[in-house]
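Researcher: Here's my situation. A collaborator sent me these components and asked whether they could plausibly form a single complex. I don't have experimental data yet, so a predicted model of the whole assembly would be a useful starting point for our discussion.
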Amino acid sequence: EPEVTQTPSHQVTQMGQEVILRCVPISNHLYFYWYRQILGQKVEFLVSFYNNEISEKSEIFDDQFSVERPDGSNFTLKIRSTKLEDSAMYFCASSDLVRGSPLHFGNGTRLTVT
Amino acid sequence: SQQGEEDPQALSIQEGENATMNCSYKTSINNLQWYRQNSGRGLVHLILIRSNEREKHSGRLRVTLDTSKKSSSLLITASRAADTASYFCATDDSGGYQKVTFGTGTKLQVIP
């Protein structure tokens, strides 16, 4: 069964550094998402992306964050200047329809900011 | 404010018993979904129920939806130790375009 893959599985960075989290969505999916989860707490929506544009974003997704689909397969989340509170699990997801279709999640990238 | 809140936050049962988790939400929705998350892993979709449906079954899962009360329940029958996980409801805001919001989750432990 097709999978969403995320790399790296664990990223450690120093405060103020830039990080790029990478995702390869399922190949025929059109809608892409980033979520984050702080230490087993609720899963928070960050951003959704369709047709090379951001569709929705949350208040968490401020100017420090950006997303990109640099080629036909990858979907990236960049955090420009990391803060301690950015430490979390970041999950990428994709779906083939905008409504009524399940999200398929990757196994996440654990970001640790020191 | 968060869209979904699950109740209870944690549930511990014996293998073979049924587990019921509830979810309440605030705004009108198109669909409600339930996901499962094993510790340290991504979320896995379990079942989707549309706003015009009241009940849906999938294997040992039964989901109900009451749009007048803005609530849903997930019943897992004849639980197994392998069902131990966190369970989340997720809703898409009917006014929003592409945003699925997750609840706070119920941590289920099934004791063998």
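Model: Some features of this prediction you could bring to your collaborator: Chain A has a mean pLDDT of 93. The interface with chain B takes residues 4, 31, 33, 35, 40-45, 48, 50, 55-56, 58, 89, 91, 93, 98-100, 102-108 of chain A (CB under 8 Å).
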